[in-house]
Amino acid sequence: MNFEPIIGLEVHIELSTKSKMFCGCPAEHFGVSPNTQVCPVCLGLPGALPAANKLAIENCIRFGLALNCEVSEFSKFDRKHYFYPDLPKSFQISQYDLPFCINGKYESIRIKRVHMEEDTGKLIHTNLNGKKVSLVDFNRSGVPLVELVTEPDFRSVDAVVKFLKEIQLTVRYLGISTADMEKGSMRLEANISLRVKEQESKRVNELPDYKVELKNINSFRYLTKALDAEIKRQAELLEDGKKIKQETRGYDEDRDRTFSQRSKEEAQDYRYFPEPDIPPIRIGELKIKNLKFKFPELPSQKRGKYQKLGLSANYIEVLVQERARADYFETALALAKQYNISEKEIAGVMVNQNLDGKFAEPAGLVKKLVELQNVDYASQADVEEAIKKVVLDNGKAVKDYQAGKEQVLGFLIGMVQKELKGKGKIELIKETLISYIHGR
């Protein structure tokens, strides 16, 4: 049978606030000595009362707005009960039925909710006096954590990875998190099931009666391998006519297979009830407008703007990957107008030569380009002659480029520039080189 995956995501993002979600302890915990940034509140000691972090709530709402969510006028915190060593209170302060943000959409992906909660402690598995032990570091306990939950709208692993990379980029543009997966500030869980592909046209809204949750995913590469392994496992079971158990699974990278961890809980298993120590929160329309007013341009908006400038898709993706670099580019554009320096020229020296790395301020880069305008550039004929020689001498690189390896183009441009002793205009070389290769 031909199966297709049905995938939904839960994305946890630690917010970059100075203090924790419900106390005044520092929120930055990576690389800090264990249990040195704790207090009665984040240790769950009797009588300690939480106080909500206003900035964390605002940043949660900003993230929801970036995903086109509706902001709830009335919201509250809830207690989510479960027993685990890294949860000092034996419950987590989270949100259940009245989250801050609901019903969003990013392109074709529906966003079910964006809510606020506190992070748990961190288990450290080690050897102590010759014995294997698990220790708990509570520095992370109580750190502000936003959870994004999607509907099961993904039908391929590539679509999942593309979406998550855009989420990571978005929170970085908003300045609310580093979303560094290696440091654990962005963590992923995927719910996955399979259905027969022909059902897509017949029963588009009908979902399988089970889902398997993959936990503890800490990189995009790891995610891809884990999803591929689980899709393969489920397909083999379904081919054999077996029923798939609803459960939580981990991924063993060494064996390239998933393994069972525990039966998957339903919401009622957590015994949610309203958090009695934190009052409900009302969010007015004026507050939402103020948060929207402070919005930066998001990656998708910058892409659209740069496309109108005539930049190639490759240039655009390089420029938008860092908000600071995109801002640098736009400042340089504004300064360069009076010198008739084109957008493509500025993008070209940034992407192909990393010239922005040599000048801390855009004004320095523009000054350099003005100086280069006065250089006696090689003629079109000289450029074409140099390109013919480079193409002839670098047949393998040319074939690699024709096969889709676009990064080879920079090497070829560099070789042409070498032939011209640095007197070639980069944009002219690039356009002529591409035209020549495709016309051969």
List the helices and strands and how they pair.
Elements: E1 3-14, H1 54-66, E2 70-71, E3 74-75, E4 78-81, E5 91-94, E6 101-106, E7 109-118, E8 122-128, E9 131-137, E10 144-150, H2 157-174, E11 186-196, H3 199-202, E12 212-217, H4 220-239, E13 247-252, E14 257-263, E15 273-274, E16 281-282, H5 285-293, H6 299-308, H7 313-320, H8 323-336, H9 343-351, H10 362-373, H11 380-393, H12 395-402, H13 408-419, H14 426-439
Helix pairs in contact: 2-4, 6-7, 8-10, 11-13, 11-14, 12-13, 13-14
Q: What does this 3D model show about the protein?
A:
By secondary structure, the protein is α+β, with helices and mostly antiparallel strands. The chain folds into three domains: 3-293, no CATH class; 299-373; 380-439, Orthogonal Bundle (Arc Repressor Mutant, subunit A). It is 38% helix and 22% strand. The protein has 14 helices and 16 strands. It has helices at residues 54-66, 157-174, 199-202, 220-239, 285-293, 299-308, 313-320, 323-336, 343-351, 362-373, 380-393, 395-402, 408-419, 426-439, and strands at 3-14, 70-71, 74-75, 78-81, 91-94, 101-106, 109-118, 122-128, 131-137, 144-150, 186-196, 212-217, 247-252, 257-263, 273-274, 281-282. The strands form four sheets. Strands 2-6-7-10-1-11-12-13-14 form a nine-stranded mixed β-sheet, with helices on one face. Strand 12 (212-217), helix 4 and strand 13 (247-252) form a beta-alpha-beta unit. Helix 2 (157-174) runs antiparallel to helix 4, helix 11 (380-393) packs across helix 14 and helix 12 (395-402) runs antiparallel to helix 13.
